[in-house]
Fold each of these.
Amino acid sequence: MARREPQLVRLQSSVFAVPRWALLVGLMFRALYRGVRLALRYWRVTGPAVLLVWLGWRAGWQIIPIVFLLAAAGLSGWRIGHRDSFGVWVKWPWLSRWRRWWLYRRGWEPTMRGCGLSTAHGSVQYWPPILSVKSSPAGDVVRVRLLRGQTPDTWSGKSSELAYAFGTRLCRVFSGRINVLPKIRAGRLGVLMAWWDRHRFGRDRPTEMTLVFVRGDLLAYAVPAIGPDSIPHTPDLSSLPVGLREDGSWLRIVLEQTHVLIAGATGSGKGSVIWSILRALAGGIRSGLVQVWAIDPKGGMELAMGRRLFSRFAYSSLPEMADVLDQAVEVMRERQTRLAGSVRQHVPAPADPTIVVLVDELAALTAYLTDKDLRARIEAALAVLLSQGRALGVHVIAAVQDPRKEVVKFRDLFPTRVGLRMTEDEQVDMVLGAGARKRGALADQIPASLPGVGYMVLDQRPEPVRVRFTHITDDHIHDMNTRYATPTPAPASAGSVPPQRNTPVDGNGNGSEPLPVELFNKLRGGDR
């Protein structure tokens, strides 16, 4: 049988001739569409420009210099009179657009090629597009859309190159968006605006990421303590204001359903973290909704100044400290028996308060304790509290200098961890989790001149956030000890307390005034 040769079929493509008038109409519509789009997008520029043209046409072109002078005088007066609103509405929006065009768009393509973050298919080069740029006193927040095959980890390894390419020394990489919480809408259009917020903020966008180029360090200055008027009578355990984030927003710790581990070298500011939390809880301590059971193995040198804030206070004897932990376990067991089957989360009340077990130096009760029986007793009590006490309203706040597993055996039972200045880079991952230092938690590089500065994992995000806790002075502590004393004083068996310096109070029982906040508000407003 003869083999049949394949037949070749030639396809002829049809060529359509487009009239010139159709091309002109299409170009006109395209130019009109782009013009309207640019006018609406940059309305801050097009709006005043249209207004000036209309005024020049109706009143004469000689009025335009007068309008410019009046506008300049008004803006200058606005900046002098109210810097915060001027920065929100004028300075930072304009600076964001300027930096987006002049700094990032001009150097984006060569930076992507130099850092190896662009891809090529044939002769076509692709690089991640910039979605938005938002400037603030802390730096520039640049939103980027990832290319196919890229992950945020790909960019984390290039953070140093990106920082120096755009004139900064530090660039942080975050997956998705940051600080985009939906607003609470009300009124007739509240339902429509709430839907728009859910569409804009609530959607998970794994193809987007955020670069934060740090240009100003708001944490280089001490953060003033919150004033007495800002301390609520009933503290919100899910949002305790204790400091400041790197972007200028308030740092709020979630104490509800968690335990807190504070790790840092000597002089790193662990006392700032402890007293910031106590100051946020002061209103609940005075009303009886919160009880603080304090343990200070350092002989009371850190916590004895606030003696009247504590319902239990042990500092002079290790067996007394073990007794305090055992009493906390007994309270937890009693609540288990009483609340089982009725509720899943303890609700604080004056007759049944939230208990905060505060341990200033955890290693002194575990690794450095020579009495094996007493150490086993303390470790057993801590293990029970850390594994079962969260839902029953018994929370543990512990500070430690050495976060190694040999020192803190139950380190993984602390959901919330604060990493202050460390002595070794390996300790960062021990405290904040594996890969934390690679994701930007440079706790081993914090200078000794910045006590209270550290890193935390917040908002259920894997990337650590740089924070600084409030600066609590001795005057603040004496004022808290006078004004927010607990209604249930500690038993006499806790030992004698070193004498305290008297704090002058006025007729209403108010003590010393808080630190001035003028410098703090000036820095947050961007006037550096």
Amino acid sequence: MNTFYIRKVKYNIMAWEIILTADKGSFTDYGGSSVLGYVACMPSRLVPKFFMDRFFTPDVPVDSEGKAIVAPYALRKVESTLVHAGFDSVAVIPPHRLEKAINQKTKVLGLTVHDPFGLNPVSFKLSMIFGGGPTWTAKYFEEFGEKISKLKSKYNFKVIVGGPGSWELTKENTDWADVIFIGEAEADLPRVVKSIIDGQEVPKVVYGKNPKVSEIPSIINAARLGEVQITRGCPRGCQFCPITPETFRTIPLDVVKKEVEVNMRAGIKRIEFITDDVLLYGSQKLRVNHEAITKLFTETMNMGVDGIWFPHISAPAVRSSPQTVKAMSEIARYNEDRAAAPVVGLESGSEKILSKYMRAKPFPWTPREWKDVILDATAIMNDSYIYPCYTMTIGYPEETNEDVDQSIDLVQSIIDHKLKAWIFPLPVIPMGVSYIRNNPFPVLEKMPTRYWDLLYISWKYDLQITREMIPILTGGIKNKFAQRAVQYMIDKIFDSIEWVFKQLKETQGKYAYTFASINLNNTTGVIKAIYWLFRLAFKPL
């Protein structure tokens, strides 16, 4: 082991056989607010690299050995899996420290990827409506790939790529990736790693089996944003989703609390439950288990955490158990300045589309009752300081303007009832392990023409709601400059953004090509952007 000094801080150069990492767009805490992670889904030419690196995807801190103090939950889970399988030389290293961590002893480099080619629904949509080009998620992955290629040619290690975006690598050839691991890691990844270290051949694509709950070890080091998994999978079985019904499991409370303790020892008191639906914790056959959920929230809060948040909840579960939603909110102490904004699947207003692609989505109700389910659930959530970010899937092969009109009607009903929610109509993506993986990718010219009306109505309301919700959106941002910058963007620029979506509506998407020549990462692009913003500032009313 050697040592060196940077700014009077002592670092040790260690040697590990297995190094786990991710590209810069994934290996970050987004400045303390996960909502800023969506900026990385924008075309890279529209967001200056300085702002991305400094405010939206800052480097995470490292310890004296160069290991990450906090890391994405997926890497922490893989780290724990390998350690529990008997591997004693494993380190989680952020990308900016990778060159100093890899050496002749390195045998395996493991990556988790979320959206390596910008193909997930949010990235795909933002690229499509803002003139195309690689998103920052894709740009960061491309840059990271170049770095890995150079290191690999020097040290001759093997690369395993896994994570929720690993299916994208089956669409394009990535020479430096030796194994693409699709699925969950616990059951099969240790075997794959051992085979590589032993010099055995491993298939290019490996599908991991789903482990039993007892086979899922708890994390041993802190996860960013206090992430702790409480469920895996979803039993609803929507065809556009890569998560199949048989994958659903509830993580035992003692394991959840053990992971909370790990995060708290690192000084993290904000807890983010990882789940596809918080109301399915401890459930049987999609029935809300009020006792299990209230016990989960109560015992977690009693550990001394500052608060509990969650990424996903489902409208049917909310409607079926409003008392549970109210109890969750009270236990977690939500209020006007301390609210939750989970992602919720709105999907479609069309009974035809719901019946074909997501029949169990409204359960215990039917697709015909979906509108009432959404309106009732939104009101219940709002009463408990929960403001849903509704996502929609638009662009199925047989979807017509009549189907989109029904979606517009549903969105307009939310607006007419003055409910607080964000609504994001996204193009449906044939993700690699979903039931619709053989569907064609959506293209701007082939979207139903009424999609652009839906997009405008939704975004106009989104901007109105966002103005009202500034304190909630910026409350978790640690960097005060970034907080003020976000507030300024929200408060001063939204009129122009609304005008942009109006132009997209009136031109049925063709206005998107206007943005194609704007690049804020070079001088010419900045001049064009200034001209474009000047036009927006003096646009006719």
